[in-house]
């Protein structure tokens, strides 16, 4: 599930002027970045977490799916504030 695609589907960008479209696209990019950052952070934090029996590959795949979904949910909500900070800093240039 890609946050940017979901937001673009929910928001019809045709009704906005050029600057508003750029701000919406920037907000989507900032959320995507925060989600990616959180995924990398969680994967690193959980890399030593015990895996399934005898190196069960299915457990590792399930853990990766969980991390992806968890990171996206965090960034969809208020998140850690990374997306908001990036957006506030970068939107001044639009």
Fold and architecture overview:
The chain is mainly α and 94 residues long. It has helices at residues 3-10, 18-45, 57-76, 82-90. The chain has one domain (3-93). It is elongated, with a radius of gyration of 17 Å. It comes from Thermovenabulum gondwanense.
Quick recap of the structure?
With 94 residues, the chain is mainly α. The protein has helices spanning 3-10, 18-45, 57-76, 82-90.
How is the topology of this model organized?
Blueprint: H1 3-10, H2 18-45, H3 57-76, H4 82-90
Protein name: Flagellar protein FlgJ N-terminal domain-containing protein
Organism: Thermovenabulum gondwanense
- Give the integer mean of the pLDDT values: 81
Summarize the biggest pleated sheet.
none
The proportion of strand residues reads under 5%
Class computed from helices, strands and strand pairing: mainly alpha
Amino- and carboxy-terminal Cα gap: 28 Å
This entry's quaternary arrangement is single chain
Taken together, the total number of domains comes to: 1
What is the helix content?
A: 55-70%
H-E string: HHHH
> Gyration radius, to the nearest Å?
17 Å
Number of helices: 4
Q: Which spans have pLDDT < 50 for at least 5 consecutive residues?
A: none
Number of strands: 0
Question: What is the overall shape?
Answer: elongated
Protein name: Flagellar protein FlgJ N-terminal domain-containing protein
